[in-house]
Amino acid sequence: MNVYKLLAKEEKNTFFSPFSLSTALAMVFCGSENETAKEIRLAIGYNVENITGDNIKSGFQQLLSTLEKASDNYVLNYANSLLSQKGFAVKEEYKLVLRESFRALLMEMDFVGESEKVINHINEWVKNKTNHMIPQLVDFLDPSTVMVILNAVYFKGTWSHKFNEKLTFRQNFYNKGTESSMKLVDMMHIKESFLYSEKGSFKALQLPYHGEEIAMLLLLPNSRNGLKELEKQLSADFFKDLKCEMLLTEVDVALPKFRLEYSKSMKEIFQELGIRRLFECGAELGGISDYKELMVSEVIHKAVIIVNEEGTEAAAATFVGFMRCSLTFNPEFIVDHPFAFVIYNTKCDLIIFMGKVEEL
User: Least buried of 118, 197, 225, 255, by fewest C-beta within 10 Å?
Assistant: First the structure.
């Protein structure tokens, strides 16, 4: 939630995958030591002092095993990979952790002599794992790069209750919550029973995907410019309480079709979260390699989402580069101004994607 709040400071469309970012960080954590490990642990949200790499490894093993269970209702694919410079000694114990706990593919490549080939390999890997939604993640590699961790996640789901295309028509959306920035957009409509809540200054609506294991939770402030105030309330407890309060209610829904593409260097965001040692020379990554000067140079995250009458298609990828040094009436849920949304697993409450729409 802290990552969202930092990204949301920029008053523009935002979309990212907490699952992708936390997986990439967890992979690094399992090779970190001392202060670096502590900073990553606290940033991920593991506030228990005695939590170990073994706890996180077993936790991710269980989580990924749950996600791997085949479903005919939706597609949710994830992939992890580690690329290392030929001749750069990555510890065998660390390789084993990545293979067993994170299902990671390990490869050695020539970063120095064939940097273009490495860049093409990274982009091709990401493109394939995200069903071509993210054709390019990186266009440059620092000459000092000796290792790269990659994570990609892809989701495609159809709504449990599809929107009728015949009921989609042009309607106003108040960009940035202002009348002066108003724009006509394709607005989808449906009247159906959904989990719904009205709480103080905002409304919440849950749109399930087929099978109802994955759902989109929409958070709509009552006032057109109320998103910033709503964002201040967001926390794990906020979502836990909200989930308990939502009731199955027949609702008149109007939701815009939209496509978001978001790309961000996460280095400064992670530093604001307290992960600083990781980006400094000699970053205490002794669990990865005996090379003392290893550090993380960059973290790049890219995500794309498409929402239409049929459902949602979304993908995200993360690059970590290492280098040396109930009501009696039908309420309305009219999404015609800035809103936030979450796509999550309703069984284990895993937030897969999260974002906000400021303008269309």
Answer: 225
CA gap 49, 56 in Å, rounded? 13
The strand pairing partners of 255, in sequence order, are: 188
Cα–Cα dist 68/57, whole Å: 16
Phi, psi of 17 (to 5 degrees): -115, 105
Let me know the angle formed at the C-alpha of 88 by 129 and 147, rounded to the nearest 5 degrees. Answer: 35
Report the side by side order of strands in the sheet with 74-85. Answer: 105-109, 74-85, 145-158, 311-323, 295-307, 258-265
Domain ranges of the chain: 1-157+260-305, 165-257+321-357
Residue 28 and residue 40 in contact, taking contact as beta carbons nearer than 8 Å: yes
Query: Among the residues of the chain, which ranges form H helices?
Result: 2-7, 18-29, 34-44, 53-68, 92-102, 115-129, 227-233, 236-245, 267-272
Q: State the alpha helices, DSSP H only, in 169-312.
A: 227-233, 236-245, 267-272
**CA nearest to 305, candidates 141, 134, 129:** 134
Record the pTM.
0.91
CATH classification of 1-157+260-305, choosing from 3.30.497.10, 3.40.50.460, 3.10.25.10, 3.10.50.40?
3.30.497.10
Tell me how far apart the terminal alpha carbons of the chain are, to the nearest angstrom.
24
Q: Going by DSSP bridges, is the β-strand pair 247-256/332-334 parallel, antiparallel, or unpaired?
A: parallel
**Going by C-beta distance under 8 Å and a sequence separation of 6 or more, which residues neighbour residue 250?**
191, 192, 193, 330
pLDDT tens-place values along the chain, 360 residues long: 789 999 998 889 999 999 999 999 998 999 999 999 999 988 887 665 666 667 788 888 888 887 777 678 888 888 899 898 888 889 999 999 999 888 889 999 998 888 899 999 999 999 999 999 999 998 888 888 888 889 999 999 999 999 999 999 999 999 999 999 999 999 999 999 999 999 889 999 999 999 899 999 999 999 999 999 999 999 989 999 999 999 999 999 999 999 999 999 999 999 999 999 999 888 889 999 998 888 888 889 999 999 999 999 999 999 888 886 644 567 999 999 999 999 999 988 999 999 999 999
In angstroms, rounded to a whole number, what is the distance separating the alpha carbons of residues 270 and 46?
A: 15
